[in-house]
Amino acid sequence: MLDKLTRKRKSMNTLGTQLYILRKKKRMSMQELAYELGVSKTAVGKWEAGTSKPSAVSLIKICNFYHLNIQQLSKEVKDLPELLY
Fold it and tell me: Is residue 82 situated within a structural domain?
């Protein structure tokens, strides 16, 4: 079950929000996800907050980790196209 903050964020269709929701669904901490992706906890936090965007390499790692393709990840995301061009 999604917590109150997750439900609120779900209505916001940004990459950071989607990354937050995916991480919460796996019941992972930022530190755990950062370890799996080979990045810092700070990087994950900035992605989720929307203050920075993952690189193309990190985006591929994210998709692989969650077993998604880029179309599945971008389905609800309005700011993803700017990352791809």
Answer: no
